[in-house]
Amino acid sequence: MSSKPDIGIGIVGYGSMGRAHAYGYTLAPHIRELPVTPRLRLISGRTEDAVARAAGAYGVERWTTDWREVVSSPDVQIVDVCTPPGGHREAVEAAASAGKAVLCEKPASVDYASAEAMAQVVADAGVPNAIGFNYRRLPAVALMKQLVEEGRVGDVLLWRGTWLSDEFLDPDIPFDWRFERATGGSTIADLGAHLIDLALWLVGDVEEVSAQSETFTRERSGREVDIDDASAALLRFANGARGTFEVGKVAARRPCDYFVELNGTAGTLRFEYPRLNELWYGDAREDATVYGMHRIRAEHPTHPYAGEWWPVGQGVGYGMTFVAQAADLLERWPDGPWDPDLRHGARVQSVCEAIERAAAEQRWVRVAEVADYASA
Ligand SMILES: NC(=O)c1ccc[n+]([C@@H]2O[C@H](COP(=O)([O-])OP(=O)(O)OC[C@H]3O[C@@H](n4cnc5c(N)ncnc54)[C@H](O)[C@@H]3O)[C@@H](O)[C@H]2O)c1
Q1: Cα(48)–Cα(318) distance, rounded to whole angstroms?
Q2: Contact 237/203 with Cβ under 8 angstroms?
Q3: CA torsion, points 61, 66, 68, 71, in degrees to nearest 10?
Q4: CA 109 to CA 116: how far, in whole Å?
Q5: Rounded to an integer, what distance in angstroms lies between the CA atom of residue 36 and that of residue 20?
Q6: Is 11 near ligand 1, meaning CB less than 6 Å away?
Q7: What does the CA dihedral 258, 347, 116, 330 come to, rounded to 10 degrees?
Q8: Is the CB of 132 under 6 A from ligand 1?
Q9: What are the residues facing 272 on neighbouring strands?
Q10: How far apart are CA 130 and CA 57, in angstroms?
Q11: Which of 198, 227, 192, 194 is CA-nearest to residue 213?
């Protein structure tokens, strides 16, 4: 028996993210010394059989078809929201108002106004809160941030982020929440939220954007699709850097391929998710005999997060990001602060919304048109 106090986790939604987050809490104590022992108390979902099966498979003590029970259960201290974006705000606000800490999956919501409103509710409640930008916790991505902060690329001039998948390519895929704006938001905010998170984190605030979007299959299962299949944008950062952004769910044979690159006055860094244990680095100050980009194996124990995993050469995978996320949050229990938080989630959403507006209106849009903070 552990002598540490228990911390009760309640998960809203048992789909792919409910599963990933349950996995994260279960393994977090395996990799890190934590001040508390996470206990998976309760999970909710709309379908009785399915949520019961998920609770059994994920090792959650109880299940319910009413998410409000997760929020009100006295043995739940952290409410983890893993439902489609259209439902995030209601669950997050109810949890924070009940004094519970909250982790919410990305994107924060389906528009900036609701993302900002929920960030304000959690701030007023004073509860630890976080948004699920899990990719920051990959050793190679965390190392990218470290190298930028160490000045290894100098001042960032250019940023580019691209995310390609084929999940919307087949016109016969039936309608579900991902095709409905009110529930799913947009592809810009779905895939793009991860890219914009990394852009804000690695480069800084985005000031202005221009964009284009297309929906190639406009009807599924007899219902109108009001979400973009693919979008692209040009970004102007507040510090003068320029960026390009592309998301596409109609890229044949691309499963979940994303790439982020920075070009600075002193070097280039590039991360390619299909080879997630590697980071490419070119140092402009280096002897020209070795001119070019070098492949860093981001698995060395001195690299962020890598030391708590396997011996060098074994690498990590997607699941690791949820374990590290859970460990980072639990490590700071009970006071936090947690990072990135829902306020940051709202900032990411404001850039996504500016991109949506720029594409719809075919013009450059300042992020300050969407969000007050940006004009400050
Ligand atoms: N961080 C990541 O790597 C990552 C990956 C995938 C999804 N996500 C995010 O996680 C959230 C959930 O995505 P998912 O892939 O787990 O979804 P999913 O479809 O696999 O599961 C959705 C869950 O929400 C419940 N639900 C509640 N209202 C619903 C509705 N109106 N329609 C459908 N399901 C509803 C379902 O019962 C189910 O338990 C989304 O915000 C998504 O963007 C994040």
Answers
A1: 29
A2: yes
A3: 10
A4: 9
A5: 20
A6: no
A7: 70
A8: yes
A9: 259
A10: 25
A11: 227
Q: Taking the model in full, what pTM does it have?
A: 0.97
Helices 187-202 and 139-149, axial angle in degrees (round to 10): 40
Q: Is 59 left (phi over 0), alpha (psi -120 to 50) or beta?
A: left
* CA 341 to chain centroid: 11
pLDDT over 70 at 327, yes or no: yes
CA of 51 to the centre of ligand 1 (A): 13
- pLDDT score, position 372: 85
CA 14 to ligand 1 centroid distance, Å? 8
Nearest residue to 29 via CA among 18, 20, 38: 38
Give dist(CA 3, CA 276) in Å, integer. Answer: 37
Dump pLDDT digits (tens) for 236-282: 999 999 999 999 999 999 999 999 999 999 999 999 999 999 999 99
